[in-house]
Amino acid sequence: MGSVTLVSATVAALSFVACGSQPTVVSHVGGRQFSIPNATVLPPAPPPSTTGGFDGSRAYNHVRHLVDLGPRPPGSDAIRQAQSYIIEQLKSYGCHVEEHDFHASTPIGDLPMKNIIAKIPGTGPGIVLYATHYDTVRLPNFVGADDGGSGTGTMLELGRVLCSRKGKLNNWIVFFDGEEAQGQWADKNSIRWTATNSTLGSREMAASMALSGELKQVTAMILADMIGPSNLRIKRDTGSTRWLVDLIWATATRLGYAKVFVNENYPVGGDDHFSFIRRGIAACDIIDFDVQTTYWHTPQDTLEKVDPRSLAIVGHVFLETVPELEKKIPVRQ
Ligand SMILES: [Zn+2]
User: pLDDT per residue over 208-245, tens digit each?
Assistant: First the structure.
């Protein structure tokens, strides 16, 4: 990481106040900058007993660990440490973990990448993918607390809860590498999903599942990306599959989260879910992209942008989609 200046710390603090978020302490350790939320003002996570067993504090601590590794672009030492962490955590929960290694040809060269998948077997056919990306965009000093961290922390905690449960559907918790563009997005404002140098992990997985025949068994793919803000507002992505969006929003409303899963439409330009939608699979992106005009893809995407309560809300909704999807999709006898 580059040197830390007083100016960057001041900018971070100012932007924080402007967002109406909590104050932070910025510390410098070993030449690296860490933004430490003030524990006395950080909203606590709701008790897991109120969120279906999902522990927002655990999810948040995963984000903290990932942020402490620094920038995690594909092929870096830090992303290898993130991979080890994700795999170790999942195995500690008793999850069956698979590592899918591949190489991606990108404008900045050949990059080694790894998708990580925890497979939780069900009693019947039908696979549901709960997915996120864990790489961070290749920018100086970008630690990706919200973009890359929040989804990963949430999916790790989802794995802890689900790996000890047995249901009808096969639930796979998926961590994609290479979501961010390697080089420039083709057009980061509108048609970025058409770029061939991004969403590399999800493209690889969808392609290999098509080849193996497993893709036909996928009943739904639910993606979490950038779900950290304390004032979380998730709009209905118009590019996602309608019935799946309706199911998730109905579940969230039933749980009392209608102010988080708001009834507004928004076209998410591009994300990993399109790798599956393009192959005819129902998919939905859970994302708060309002931060596009504030800290998105800037060094200000730091730990204090992530609220354990927001992770807990999304995790709770995901857990409750499991029985909803089982009800909707008849399982063969
Ligand atoms: Zn990003």
Answer: 999 999 999 999 999 999 999 999 999 999 999 999 99
Output the DSSP codes for 59-114: HHHHHHHHHHT----TTSHHHHHHHHHHHHHHHHTT-EEEEEEEEEEETTEEEEEE
* Extents of the domains making up the chain: 6-328
Q: What is the pLDDT of residues 157-212, one digit of tens each?
A: 999 999 999 899 999 999 999 999 887 654 444 444 446 789 999 999 999 999 99
Which residues lie near ion ligand 1 (Cβ < 5 Å)? 137, 147
The pTM for the full model equals 0.85
Q: Ligand 1 centre from 331 Cα, in Å?
A: 36
* CA–centroid distance, residue 147 to ligand 1 (Å): 5
Q: How far is the CA of 254 from the centre of ligand 1 (A)?
A: 30
- Top-level class of domain 6-328: alpha beta
